[in-house]
Design goal:
The protein has about 290 residues and is of the alpha+beta class. The chain is about 60% helix and about 15% strand.
């Protein structure tokens, strides 16, 4: 299945400790480049996250962000009595030195360790995060395949256009060659001196060989068939098609340089337009 490199996926997952939410988006890139944004509770999970993404995605600049919102209620909070008692002793000892010393209760609660929350099962939370990532990757892959199917259809239309142009040029070739021979014959009649017929025939054959485009048309047909085959593969095909676009361009350029007829010159221009349109689409494929 052809896959685009641009896609977006989002999802949420409820856990006993809170809500996990994630977003995954990607744009075109020559290689796989993954940017992660993780909450502190999931920092240790980064290597596994990278490994799972790389197993499913081969190209693209990917931005993956996970968020964690705790669901622990205020009733589940408790005070660290030992620490609070020690802080009270320190405050009492300092009163003699600082008569105007006052301790704000809200500030006291902010002191690290005074307020304790219910324990979060880190391993279970990380497992939930990996499950969420699998869901995101499924949605992400589906979005890429939907977009890729549209790009593949557009490319097949261009390939049909290239094949039609090549077929039309083949049909013109006998007429073009006959016209060239007639043009040469007309010029020779204007020459007063006698010429060697054998030598003239040899020169004509050499000239026709220089402008012959049968080989280019054959290679175009081969490239069209190969592009259609690649579009049917399930692997990542962006790099293969990118290389093939260079081969298409080479044949179109040669066809244009050998042209001695306005029709084949225009055909070469139309070929380049179709090839460039395909090249732009290939840049979006994984």
């Amino acid at each position: 299945m052809i896959r685009s490199m641009t896609a977006f996926a989002a999802g949420e997952r409820l856990t006993p400790w809170g809500t996990l939410a994630g977003e995954m988006r990607a744009v075109n890139h020559r290689y796989l480049e993954l940017s992660l944004r993780l909450p502190e509770e999931l920092r240790a999970l980064e290597p596994q996250l990278r490994e799972r993404v790389a197993a499913r995605v081969s190209r693209g600049k990917i931005d993956l962000g996970l968020r964690y919102r705790t669901a622990i209620a205020p009733t589940e909070l408790k005070l660290n009595e030992a620490l609070l008692g020690r802080l009270a002793e320190l405050a009492h000892d300092c009163e003699a030195r600082f008569p105007r010393l006052s301790v704000d209760f809200a500030e006291l609660l902010r002191y690290p360790g005074v307020v304790e929350q219910a324990e979060v099962d880190s391993a279970a939370l990380q497992a939930e995060a990996l499950t969420l990532l699998d869901h995101l990757l499924d949605e992400f892959a589906a979005a890429r395949e939907r977009e890729g199917a549209k790009l593949a259809e557009a490319m097949r239309e261009r390939l049909d256009g290239i094949a039609a142009i090549a077929l039309q040029v083949r049909e013109w070739l006998p007429e073009i060659r006959a016209a060239l021979r007639q043009r040469l014959d007309n010029r020779l009649t204007d020459i007063k001196q006698p010429l060697d017929p054998g030598r003239l025939e040899q020169e004509l054959v050499l000239w026709l060989q220089k402008i012959d485009v049968d080989e280019e048309l054959d290679r175009l047909a081969v490239h069209v068939a190969e592009a259609r085959r690649i579009l049917g593969l399930r692997d990542a095909v962006g790099r293969r098609l990118d290389f093939l676009m260079q081969e298409f361009n080479r044949e179109a350029n040669t066809l244009g340089s050998k042209s001695v007829d306005a029709r084949t010159t225009q055909a070469a221009v139309e070929l380049k337009v179709l090839i460039e349109q395909m090249r732009e689409q290939v840049q979006n494929l994984e």
